[in-house]
């Protein structure tokens, strides 16, 4: 990862974090569909990133969000879990011939269908861990599944919209 | 030995994963004990000021409604004041401690709020500097809001009543039977009233207020209204569902109450070996 991309990613994390804290924190459609848009920052890290850095970055981002949510540890827990299963899932859904070294897992590079199969299960896993931690001891596994299902769909839809609107199109030439 | 090290090196990402998860779980557990030490949360200066700026902007749009609520409360207070004002020619009897004021009130604005999780918290814009202490009760004109968890110089974090870890000592206003109000984590407008024995006759529509037994809240602050009573489940206690009188999605300004005799009551309880369960 060269210096320019590092700057771009830090900027992306900052913007998504701010949007999450300032706009999406108290948003819950019908009381069940939450939006964890900041996961887009973890999802769009380069495919070739080493596992160790991926885990540390995700933990850091999760902890940042946690501090503002007053849910210390819960986002970090779930985000680290997402980061842990991301390489395995990438390996499973890799296209024939594998990935290019320079590709990012985004819509503009990999296509719409691929992004959907890539992001939806990962975000669902995140939501599952997050809401399990949130509802621990209060029972209601159905409630957890319900919230996870709708939250993951909502998050992925918003992530797709953000990518289509703001991410750079495929480079020319 | 080398083989073991190589094996561990191969597992390094899993080991890091496990380590981070354990760290996260430890943070969750350490942070969730209601009176436990909270290291970093939204009461710290930087985070508090970000939340405050956000609420400065958002609150602007609800100013009209806030004014209306304040006006309403002012009117109510004026009415009450009229009723208790001394008439100049009446005789005065000095009572030593019966009517002594043991509660102090303060006002604050909410700058951060959550209500969709199981452990919800609020952040207020007053802190140690303004005399806020952990353990103070928080309420507004509608009813009970929560209890202060931790304070920094300028901000404080409040455990919302919508937090499965908070218990509020309360009673049914009509017959004085006391129990505990606890949120079940489901609906942000409803909570459960626990430990009301089966022989008690209570009806839907009865008011629930604070009991004043746990020395956090003064007696008689509204909590909610009974919405339904069931005899299912526990053989000893009634299953009472209450509609909370506070609308947590709209709280903007709150009052904080401090019991100036709390330490005295606590040390008395300790002397007589009573554990205060609230």
Key features?
heterodimer; A: 173 residues; mainly alpha; Arp2/3 complex 21 kDa subunit ARPC3; two-stranded antiparallel ribbon; 7 helices; 2 strands; globular; B: 278 residues; alpha+beta; Thrombin, subunit H; 6-stranded antiparallel beta barrel; 6-stranded antiparallel β-barrel; 5 helices
**Percentage of residues in strands of chain B:** 25-35%
Helix content of chain B: 25-40%
Q: Tell me which protein chains meet in the greatest interface and how many residues each side has.
A: A-B, 37 and 42 residues
Which percent bin holds the helix content of chain A? 55-70%
Reported CATH architecture of the domain at 167-244 in chain B: Beta Barrel
CATH fold label of the domain at 167-244 in chain B: Thrombin, subunit H
Radius of gyration of chain B: 23 Å
User: What's the gyration radius of chain A in Å?
Assistant: 16 Å
Number of strands of chain A: 2
Q: Mean pLDDT of chain A, rounded to whole units?
A: 83
> Any guess at the CATH architecture of chain A?
Orthogonal Bundle
The main pleated sheet of chain B reads as: 6 strands, antiparallel, barrel
Write up what this structure looks like.
The complex is a heterodimer of chains A (173) and B (278). With 173 residues, chain A is an all-alpha fold. Chain A has one domain: Arp2/3 complex 21 kDa subunit ARPC3 (Orthogonal Bundle), CATH 1.10.1760. Chain A contains seven helices and two strands. Chain A has a two-stranded antiparallel sheet with strand order 1-2. In chain A, helix 6 (112-134) packs antiparallel against helix 7 (141-166). The radius of gyration of chain A is 16 Å and the shape is globular. Chain B is an alpha+beta fold. Chain B has a domain at 167-244: Thrombin, subunit H (Beta Barrel), CATH 2.40.10.350. Chain B is 28% helix and 28% strand. Chain B contains five helices and twelve strands. Chain B has helices at residues 2-10, 12-32, 45-59, 63-84, 262-271, and strands at 103-113, 119-124, 137-139, 144-151, 156-163, 167-172, 178-182, 190-194, 207-210, 222-230, 239-244, 253-259. A six-stranded antiparallel β-barrel of chain B has the order 1-2-5-4-3-12. In chain B, a hairpin with a 5-residue loop joins strand 6 (167-172) and strand 7 (178-182). The longest helix of chain B has 22 residues, at 63-84. Chain B is globular. Chain B starts with a helix and ends in a 7-residue tail after the last helix. Chains A and B meet through helix 3 and helix 4 of A and helix 2, helix 3 and strand 2 of B.
């Amino acid at each position: 990862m060269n210096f320019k991309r590092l700057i771009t990613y830090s900027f992306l994390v900052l913007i998504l974090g701010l949007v999450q804290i300032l706009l999406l924190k108290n948003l819950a459609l019908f009381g069940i569909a939450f939006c964890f848009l900041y996961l887009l920052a973890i999802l769009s890290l380069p495919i070739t990133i080493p596992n160790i850095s991926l885990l540390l970055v995700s933990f850091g981002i999760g902890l940042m969000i946690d501090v503002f949510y007053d849910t210390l540890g819960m986002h970090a827990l779930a985000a680290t879990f997402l980061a842990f299963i991301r390489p395995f899932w990438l390996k499973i859904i890799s296209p024939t011939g594998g990935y290019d070294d320079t590709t990012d897992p985004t819509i503009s590079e990999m296509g719409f269908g691929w992004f959907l199969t890539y992001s939806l299960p990962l975000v669902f896993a995140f939501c599952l861990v997050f809401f399990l931690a949130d509802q621990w001891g209060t029972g209601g596994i159905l409630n957890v599944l319900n919230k996870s299902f709708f939250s993951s769909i909502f998050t992925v839809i918003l992530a797709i919209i953000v990518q289509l609107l703001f991410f750079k199109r495929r480079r020319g030439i | 030995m080398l083989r073991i090290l190589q094996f561990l090196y191969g597992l390094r990402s899993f080991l890091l994963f496990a380590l981070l998860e354990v760290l996260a779980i430890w943070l969750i557990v350490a942070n969730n004990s209601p009176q436990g030490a909270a290291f970093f949360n939204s009461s710290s200066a930087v985070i508090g000021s970000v939340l405050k700026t956000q609420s400065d902007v958002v609150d602007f749009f609800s100013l009209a409604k806030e004014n209306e609520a304040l006006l309403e409360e002012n009117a109510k207070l004026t009415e009450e004041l009229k009723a208790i004002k001394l008439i100049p020619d009446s005789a005065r009897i000095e009572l030593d401690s019966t009517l002594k004021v043991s509660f102090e009130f303060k006002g604050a604005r909410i700058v951060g709020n959550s209500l969709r999780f199981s452990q919800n918290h609020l952040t207020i814009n007053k802190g140690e500097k303004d005399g806020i202490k952990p353990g103070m009760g928080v309420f507004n004109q509608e009813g009970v809001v929560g209890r202060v968890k931790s304070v920094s110089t300028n901000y404080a974090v409040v455990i919302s009543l919508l937090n499965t870890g908070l218990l509020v000592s309360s009673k049914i206003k009509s017959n004085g039977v006391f129990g505990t109000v606890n949120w079940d984590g489901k609906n942000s407008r409803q909570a459960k009233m626990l430990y009301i024995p089966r022989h008690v006759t209570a009806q839907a529509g009865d008011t629930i207020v604070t009991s004043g037994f746990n020395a956090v809240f003064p007696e008689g602050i509204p909590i909610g209204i009974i919405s339904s009573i069931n005899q299912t489940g526990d053989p000893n206690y009634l299953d009472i569902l209450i509609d909370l009188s506070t609308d947590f999605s709209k709280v903007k300004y709150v009052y904080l109450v401090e019991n100036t005799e709390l330490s005295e009551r606590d040390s008395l309880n300790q002397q007589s070996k009573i554990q205060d369960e609230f």
